[in-house]
Design goal:
Helix content: 40-55%
Shape: elongated
Radius of gyration: 25 Å
Strand content: 15-25%
CATH superfamily of the largest domain: Argininosuccinate synthetase, chain A, domain 2
Distance between the termini: 83 Å
Catalytic activity: L-citrulline + L-aspartate + ATP = 2-(N(omega)-L-arginino)succinate + AMP + diphosphate + H(+)
Structural class: alpha/beta
Keywords: Amino-acid biosynthesis, Arginine biosynthesis, ATP-binding, Cytoplasm, Ligase, Nucleotide-binding
GO molecular function, one term: argininosuccinate synthase activity
Order of helices and strands: EHEHEHHEHEHHEEEEEHEEHHHEEHHH
Strand order of the largest sheet: 3-2-1-4-5
CATH architecture of the largest domain: Alpha-Beta Complex
Number of strands: 14
Pathway: Amino-acid biosynthesis; L-arginine biosynthesis; L-arginine from L-ornithine and carbamoyl phosphate: step 2/3
Pfam family, one: Arginosuc_synth
Number of domains: 3
Length: about 400
Amino acid sequence: MTERVVLAYSGGLDTSVAIPYLAEKMDAEVVCVAVDLGQGGEDMEAIQKRAIDCGAVESVVVDAKEEFAADFCVPALQANALYMDRYPLVSSLSRPLIVKHLVSAAQQFGGTVVSHGCTGKGNDQVRFEAGLAALAPDLKVVAPARDFAWTRDKAIEYAEAKGLPIETSKKNPFSIDQNLWGRAVETGFLEDIWNGPTEEVYSYTADPSQPREPDEVVITFEAGVPVRIDGRSLTPYQVIDELNQRAGAQGVGRIDMVEDRLVGIKSREVYEAPGAVALISAHMELENVTVERDLARFKRGVDQRWSELVYDGLWFSPLKDALDALIAEAQKHVSGDVRMILHAGKATVTGRRSAQSLYDFSLATYDTGDTFDQSLAKGFVQLFSLPAKIAAARDAKKG
């Protein structure tokens, strides 16, 4: 019986070449699945047709933009997810959703093998295969670039020999992955970490150094979910999409960093995430207003661990599920408005208001009307510092 391979298909050189290559190597039929995550670029119908032209027996395009925004970007926002305190999980956030649709296609079309275009030194191989292990452990996995030592030069040569309808003459110096939540760029001259990124690297953001008028925006949250911009009700997808445009036009969300990959190497990455950076900044500030101190302190550690789990490909894991429950509990009162100025590469919070606010003006003010009883402070300070005082006395005895 001929096996069917379900291929995560991007429409690019590597995955296009994988269609006839897998068919020959494994004597298999290839089913392609392309997922629209709001990445923009080439028309999805053209990608669907290219898969058939390259030899796929089935070609599926999934419009997952709203699903990605609501079920993946919003949870990342509520977790203030920033890997190494900087990276808003652009690629790692999309992989579990792609895996979900690969499994669905395998069930629909009788697939027994799943394939992806990841190499052996990247994080994405882990994200795909850890997700598949959780959702469909019976499916086998084949990764041509890793399992068959398939290099880009070989891919170009193979595509030209087969006459595949894919551009091979223009060799983009960068490896790029993008979706609604952001854009990741690596390789090329960026591999020398002394080289600064040039403007050609960027696509989602304008040069922040160029003069322009600032953009004021008011973002409204309900239980940690962004629901309105400037009073207009929008879906999470529409909120992120609009902020990508507006914050991107102000150069917000450029990140240049050397990060710790899961496989143990350090990698230089350049990211653009205008909407994500603006939203996370706004959400963090609203949490400062509405979340009780000890819960807020504990959640910061939870947020960091959540980010690491998702970066490491463990979206479908018991610990991630448990952390989701705590984060959801912490979002119950995160409702209100945040005003921001988008300008010169920064998203700066200038105002916040909430019916769930824990900020009490009469307690905070230093002017007339102050209701804070300062007479209680002296005893509080003495008791609070007592353990340190006792320890210091002990140490003094020892000289």
